Amino acid sequence: MALLESLGTGKPIGEARDRDLPLVVRHFYHHAGWAQLMGTEMGGWKPLGVVAAVVTWNSPLLPLVWKICPALAMGNTVVLVPPPRAPLSALLLAELGAQAGLPPGVLNVLTGEGALAEGLAAHPGVDAVAVAGSVE
């Protein structure tokens, strides 16, 4: 994951490995706790449905995780649009999710240019939009 983040963004591999990946792991653990407590401690919380997560930054790994972890933990389907020039981390994350047992269609990745994210955000089947980066 650190290597793909470095190749996709130009970030030093040491920064991706030593700073970003430990934070990614913490986010997954934290939000796994949300999923476990949703029925007992988070009364009244219901899944929204389909959440579009759009990441426009060129350092996508952490913003990706910030957007998808809470949505998945609360039982939503996520359609993730990574930065057009740095989709590798998102694609690997989706593959790892499938290997971990996420049902097909729960975590989806769409790669492409800005118009793709704009169209997804306006789609009537999308119930919520989470954006990391420029809101343009």
From TrEMBL:
InterPro entries: Ald_DH/histidinol_DH, Ald_DH_N, Aldehyde_DH_dom. Residues 2-135 form the Aldehyde dehydrogenase domain. It holds the Pfam family Aldedh. GO terms for molecular function: oxidoreductase activity. SUPFAM superfamilies: ALDH-like. Transmembrane segments: none annotated. Coiled coil: none annotated. This is Aldehyde dehydrogenase 16 family member A1. It comes from Chelydra serpentina.
